[in-house]
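User: Here's a chain of 96 residues. Predict its fold as tokens.
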Amino acid sequence: EPTTALDVTIQAQILSEVQKLVREQGTSLIWITHDLSVIAGLADDVAVMYAGRIVEQGPVADVLDRPQHPYTQGLIDSLPSRNQRGQRLRQIPGMA
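Assistant: Prediction complete.
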């Protein structure tokens, strides 16, 4: 994950440059990350993996707004949110 330890300003600059290169070269990009906000801003399509297998894939908006797989829903539910202030984050059961 090339941008994980970076502050948000530098992260945004790198992501912008990556998007620019993809457009200029007319190519695709595979970006592996646990950061759903990066995926929401960077990708057109997303694949969610669990235990080494793709369990859900599709357009980013569809997958993040209407997840079909329990693991995808668990990932989304485990994100901190201003609406959940003071509540414990949801754990995703199982083992990978």
